[in-house]
Amino acid sequence: MSQKSILKACIIDDDKLYVSLIKMLIKKNNLAQELLVFENGEKAFDYFKTALTTDQDPSDLPEVILLDLNMPIMDGWEFLDAIEPYASMLKGYKLKLNVVSSTINPEEVKRAKSHSIVNDFITKPISKDAMLSAFRI
């Protein structure tokens, strides 16, 4: 069964190799027509804050976010804390934020899932099935 492609997805991760692999997987499986990539949470947060607090068309927002936890400048935890005030607005736009991390620590998984905006926690390396699930709208 073929999965429908979404319009826009977002990767927030500083690992260039990982980002390249994910981009290739997204393209190969036709999961998104457009990709936004941010190398840290601060750049991503600035983008989302601007999109949500100006007259920007909400359809410009990505439908799926893949968020890494360990990044410089503003890590994934700080991004989750910063975006939390906008969580209900983002969920209203049907945005699915998926935390993607190499950690297998159950406390960190629980902490991530405690954020209302988090749809799922996916362990790296991300499998094709996990990727397909993350992009299922």
Description:
- The chain is of the alpha/beta class and 137 residues long.
- The protein has a single domain, classed as Response regulator (Rossmann fold).
- The protein contains six helices and five strands; from the N terminus they run βαβαβααβαβα.
- Helix 2 packs parallel to helix 3.
- The protein is globular and about 35 Å long.
- The two termini are 15 Å apart.
- The mean pLDDT is 88.
Q: What does the secondary structure layout of this molecule look like, with pairings?
A:
Layout: E1 6-12, H1 16-28, E2 32-38, H2 41-53, E3 64-67, H3 76-83, H4 87-92, E4 96-101, H5 106-113, E5 118-123, H6 128-134
Parallel strand pairs: 1-2, 1-3, 3-4, 4-5
Helix pairs in contact: 2-3
Features:
five-stranded parallel beta sheet, alpha/beta, 137 residues, Rossmann fold, single chain, 22% strand
Could you provide a short overview of the structure?
With 137 residues, the chain is of the alpha/beta class.
Structural class: alpha/beta
- Write down how many β-strands occur, each being a DSSP E stretch of 2 or more residues: 5
- Into which percent range does the helicity of residues fall? 40-55%
* Sheet with the most strands: spatial strand order: 2-1-3-4-5
State the low-pLDDT regions, or none. Answer: none
CATH class, named: Alpha Beta
